[in-house]
UniProtKB/TrEMBL annotation:
The keyword RNA-binding does not apply. Residues 153-367 form the FAD-binding domain. Residues 35-59 are annotated as: Disordered. One of its GO terms (molecular function) is monooxygenase activity. It comes from the Eukaryota. Belongs to the paxM FAD-dependent monooxygenase family. InterPro entries: FAD-bd, FAD-dep_Monooxygenase_BioMet, FAD/NAD-bd_sf. The keyword Metal-binding does not apply. Keywords: FAD, Flavoprotein, Monooxygenase, Oxidoreductase. This is FAD-binding domain-containing protein. Pfam families: FAD_binding_3. It comes from Immersiella caudata.
Length: 469
């Protein structure tokens, strides 16, 4: 069996690693991993998160983001994502934690300086409950997480070729076409190629309403080389500030000794940013104007010092009718671009990778264990893949839909609002943070829904159901 993965970001790299971990070793299989963008040459600057650093594989200012996993070049790997990393490889989990900043709390602030609430990020053992090992959110530069995954995969594995088309041949095999004119056949094609996925475009060719939609908001951000503020360092926290003129967040982009303060700001803009209409100084001036009245001295210091290093239009995808067929499957942003508000872009990509690999491993093992029964090896593999892709969507789509809905609710708090709306939001937010019944009524039991989920358990249930039927 030959598998091709398109996309060398978080979703693609983690899918490669989970497949290598979980697929049965016999009969042998091969995996090819393709990425369209070559990494940048590393800057010799010893601080990989410093303000003037342009790390490899990090988009420059004039390259617009096509990933919902990042805002401002940074991200948070939620406890469920960290748990997936630990299941994949404890050493990889340790490496991601070490290069990032474990956050035990989220601090929610009003632009007027009010502390609206503090929320623990710990998952209380996740699906295993008191018997499990607790995970917390880890804040990180996007490059830091990518680098850990890339080094685990091995730099020689990723091949830099741009995929431009996909088709299913009469033989039933998938044909991948490259920009350089080359072609390659495979038995399974994994589209991990982001929100503007070529693989998704081929899968839903001619079907309207299956492409990305700009939300009307964009994010900017970067890193400031400075000592971490007390609110971040002492509380081991990420800070989220809501106000009448938009949203602002900050946290550590690495371990405390890196002195890397990661920041991001989301704002409304009807016009979709493009390379042609970007004006760095104008964007920076608008940011300073939006947050000039912030009562938080950290925010005032950031907007005075920071350069706008990146701009990230936020995209979402509609609910797709499926995520794969005929041996082609979508993972990560290619399947379900989520609002950055969810804080789940990277973590859901990791869960996708784990779930898909466990399903393929389970169905293929059952197929191989039947021996000569049930047709040729090729036919049995094809049937196993078809079952896996159906179960993958059945398992993952409801979870993604619930997370996306929560993100839409949170996005409403990032819109510009009147004085009355702003203070009404503060009061409502404070009540939600201090009275758990109200919070659960408005947002559901977030910790249980987000962190009390297990790919292994869901796959075992799904496979048992197939077996019994």
């Amino acid at each position: 069996m030959h598998i091709i993965i398109t996309g060398g970001g978080i979703a693609g790299l983690s899918t490669y690693l989970f497949l290598r971990k979980n697929l049965p070793p016999s009969p042998p299989y091969t995996i090819s991993l393709y990425e369209s963008h070559r990494p940048r040459t590393p800057n010799p600057n010893p601080n990989p998160n410093a303000l003037n650093h342009q790390p490899e594989h990090e988009p420059s200012f004039d390259t617009l983001s096509i990933s919902t996993a990042i805002v401002g070049g940074g991200l948070g790997v939620s406890p469920n994502g960290m748990r997936a990393l630990y299941d994949l490889d404890p050493d990889l989990h340790a490496a991601v934690s070490a290069q990032g900043f474990p956050c035990e709390h989220f601090v929610f602030m009003g632009e007027n300086g009010w502390t609206l609430g503090v929320q623990r990020t710990g998952d209380n053992g996740g699906y295993e409950g008191s018997e499990g090992r607790e995970e917390v959110c880890v804040s990180s530069s996007r490059h830091g997480l990518w680098r850990c995954l890339n080094e685990k995969v091995g730099r020689e594995v990723v091949k830099y070729r741009r995929v431009v088309g996909v088709e299913v041949r009469e033989t039933g095999r998938r044909l991948v076409r490259f920009e350089d004119g080359g072609e390659e056949e495979c038995d399974v094609l994994v589209g991990a190629d982001g929100v503007r996925s070529v693989v998704r475009g081929s899968l839903f060719e001619g079907v309207e309403g299956t492409g990305p939609r700009y939300t009307g908001a964009s994010g900017i951000g970067g890193f400031v080389d400075t000592d971490l503020p007390a609110r971040v360092l002492e509380n081991k926290a990420m800070v989220f500030t809501f106000g009448g003129s938009g949203f602002f967040g900050y946290g550590s982009g690495g371990p405390p000794e890196a002195k890397s303060l990661m920041w991001w700001s989301t704002f409304e803009t009807d016009d979709l940013p493009s390379r042609e209409n970007l004006d760095r100084e104008e964007i920076k001036a608008d940011m300073r104007k939006r947050h000039a009245n912030s009562a938080d001295p950290v925010i005032r210091d950031i907007i005075a010092k920071a350069e706008v290093e990146s701009i990230y239009p936020t995209w979402v995808l509609p609910d797709l009718p499926h995520w794969g067929e005929n041996g082609i499957v979508l993972v990560g942003d290619a399947a379900h671009a989520l609002s950055p508000t969810t804080g789940q872009g990277a973590s859901q990509a990791l869960e996708d990778a784990q779930t898909l690999s466990l399903l393929l491993a389970g169905t293929l093992k059952r197929a191989y264990d039947t021996g000569a029964e049930g047709g040729s090896l090729e036919e049995k593999e094809k049937d196993a893949v078809a079952v896996s892709l159906k179960l993958f969507y059945d398992i993952r789509a409801p979870r993604i839909k619930a997370i996306a809905e929560r993100g839409r609710k949170m996005d409403q708090q990032k819109k510009e609002m009147s004085w009355f709306e702003e203070y009404g939001m503060y009061c409502f937010f404070w009540l939600m943070m201090h009275f758990s019944p109200l919070r659960k009524l408005a947002m559901g039991d977030v910790n249980t829904q987000l962190y009390g989920w297990s790919a292994k358990a869901e796959v075992e249930k799904a496979l048992a159901s197939v077996e019994s039927s």
